Amino acid sequence: MKPCRVWLLTAVLAPGLGWAHAFLQHAAPAVGTRVSVAPTRLRLWFSERLEAAFSRVEVVDAHGRSVAAGPLHPAADPEELVIPLQQLTPGVYRVRWKAVSVDTHVTRGSFTFTVDR
């Protein structure tokens, strides 16, 4: 194959290679877990560096009320987000997140965790 054809084929088939998306790697409390001690903060780790100012995390109780005790803030690790939580009572909590990576790609997701009685 001639070099110009290789270049053209690469340009057409791979325009997004090298562009990354920030996918949730793990959380504390972990996705779907039951914890016996109520956490005072939620920590989320992603696969890419984040634009924390444009990312969002919402934590709500079973009635849809926010249980955040303050704003989302970046951690020392540019791939981590932290949100302080109010004193949680036993029950199920839903986390909804939107992560904006440094290359401006957006990913979203949600999960639950349970605080045992």
Can you offer a commentary on this structure?
This protein has 117 residues and is mainly β. It has a single domain, classed as Immunoglobulin-like (Sandwich). The chain is 9% helix and 38% strand. It is built from 1 helix and 8 strands. The chain has a 4-stranded antiparallel sheet with strand order 1-3-6-5, with no helix packed on it. Strands 2-8-7-4 form a 4-stranded mixed sheet, with no helix packed on it. A hairpin with a 5-residue loop joins strand 5 and strand 6. The longest helix has 11 residues. The termini are far apart. The N terminus is likely disordered.
Strand-pairing-aware structural class: mainly beta
Spatial arrangement of strands, main beta sheet: 1-3-6-5
Order of helices and strands: HEEEEEEEE
In angstroms, what separates the terminal alpha carbons? 67 Å
Number of strands: 8
Share of β-strand residues: 35-45%
CATH topology: Immunoglobulin-like
Q: Tell me the major beta sheet.
A: 4 strands, antiparallel
Number of domain units: 1
